[in-house]
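Reading a protein record of the kind used here takes only a little practice. To see the layout at work, look at the sequence and tokens printed below.
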Amino acid sequence: MYRVYAIVSDKEICKNIVTKLNNLGILTRHLHVIASLTKDLEGLPQATVWQNTELVHGLELGAALGGIAGLIGGGLAMIFPPTGVALNDSVLLVVAVGGAILGSATSAIISSHEHNHSLDRFRTDIARGKLLLMVDVSRRQVDEVQAIIHNIHSQAKISITISK
């Protein structure tokens, strides 16, 4: 998937772009709009915590670190088992999965309160009253999405990244 970022000047232009993209077959769940707190985004697909925060990164990092910690802890428990307890190989798997789950949950709580740093480059425009439209599409749709945005708003600033 690719993410097309477009800075547009106002709500009506953004609505026109969203309508054209919907007509192209791009589902509303693949469209996300961010604006300053003073802007009314009614009628537009507003970005959620998934797009606004570092939640996704936190989940991934927490799962990795928690899983590694679980593997180490489980390995140590197998090497130095508690007195009177017989451990089998499944303990290692259970502790690793448990660590990944605990790590994901802990990291998600922390990262859901941190703003998405990949959006920092758009903060100035958003603070000046512009809207950021994010469109998640396949590679074959990128050029068509860019053309639609430029046909409706020739002054739109567009950038593209590869997303997960």
Observations:
- Residues 59 and 105 are 7 Å apart (CA to CA).
- The first strand starts at residue 2 and ends at 8.
- The chain has a mean pLDDT of 91.
